[in-house]
Amino acid sequence: MKKIILTVLPLLFAQSVFATRTVYVTGRGSERTYCNANSGFFCLDKAKRDAQYDAENDARRNCEIFQRGRALTYTASYFTNCNPSYLPPNHDGTWVSCNSDCRMQCEVQN
Questions:
Q1: At residue 14, does pLDDT exceed 60?
Q2: Distances (CA, A) of 63 to 5, 15, 17, 66, 67
Q3: How far is the C-alpha of 68 from the C-alpha of 71, rounded, in Å?
């Protein structure tokens, strides 16, 4: 029993010494691409995903480099806007521009 207590006590102490707090970080991303008449929705959706991917990477870098923390990517939320936001079937082809903002939690040691 004494051995168990001596093993558990340092673990409890270590957790209190390395307490963490959670902050929010943000990131921005963008994508500009040409969508031809055959690609339609798939091209627009890919541009949106690429902008979100860039925004998430930017937020993660802000956490890891500037906050010296651990990015909790599963908490990421996005606000994404594309122009144009809709491509009709059989359009002539157009340039699409998407911008995305990402917000996520970052775990920082005190």
A1: no
A2: 37, 22, 21, 6, 5
A3: 9
- Residue 102, beta-bridge partner list: 27, 78
N-term to C-term CA, the chain: 33
User: How many Cβ atoms sit within 10 Å of the Cβ of residue 33?
Assistant: 15
Q: Name the pTM for this structure.
A: 0.79
Measured CA to CA, the distance from residue 22 to residue 6 in angstroms comes to 31
CA pair distance 91, 89, nearest whole angstrom: 6
Within 10 A of 102 (CB to CB), how many other CB atoms are there?
26
Whole-number average pLDDT of the chain: 86
Phi, psi of 51 (to 5 degrees): -65, -40
What is the per-residue pLDDT across 39-89, written as a single tens digit (0 to 9) for each?
A: 778 899 999 999 999 999 999 999 999 999 999 999 999 999 999 998 887
